[in-house]
Amino acid sequence: MNTLDTWAAQVLAEFDLDPGLLDRTAVLDVARDVAHGVARPAAPLTTYLLGIAVGRGADPTEAAARISQLATEWAATQPADSAHPPAGHTADKSR
Questions:
Q1: Which of 22, 56, 68, 88 is the 20 to 30 Å CA partner of 49?
Q2: Domain ranges of the chain
Q3: Can you say how many angstroms the Cα of residue 71 is from the centroid of all Cα atoms in its chain?
Q4: How far apart are the first and last CA of the chain?
């Protein structure tokens, strides 16, 4: 078991959550898509919002796919946020 698995198991146990509820790959994919398509700080916020949506009854797979689609659309239509560049890029500090 790696660190991520151990951490997730501890949090699941702490809140008495069914381990079957966690689709780690889907959550990490959403975080990646949002970090790359919107801004890095948007990733944890968005995964939290995904959790709220699922907790309110949204289908986890459909919600994750929709958020990833939104991030892709955002990247194609919104100007870059130089204060929070996508992962792998650095902010232009000369401004």
A1: 88
A2: 22-77
A3: 10
A4: 45
The CA distance from 29 to 85, in Å, is 18
**pLDDT tens digit string along 24-52?**
999 999 999 999 999 999 999 999 999 99
Buried b (16+ CB within 10 A) or exposed e, 32-60: ebbbbbbbbebbeebbeebeebbeeeeeb
Token pair of 2, please? 């790696």
Q: 51 is written with which tokens?
A: 């959790």
Number of H helices, E strands in the chain: 4, 0
Element (H, E) at 73: helix 60-77
Q: At residue 71, does pLDDT exceed 80? A: yes
Report CA-CA distances (Å) from 85 to 42, 73, 90, 91, 92.
11, 16, 6, 6, 9
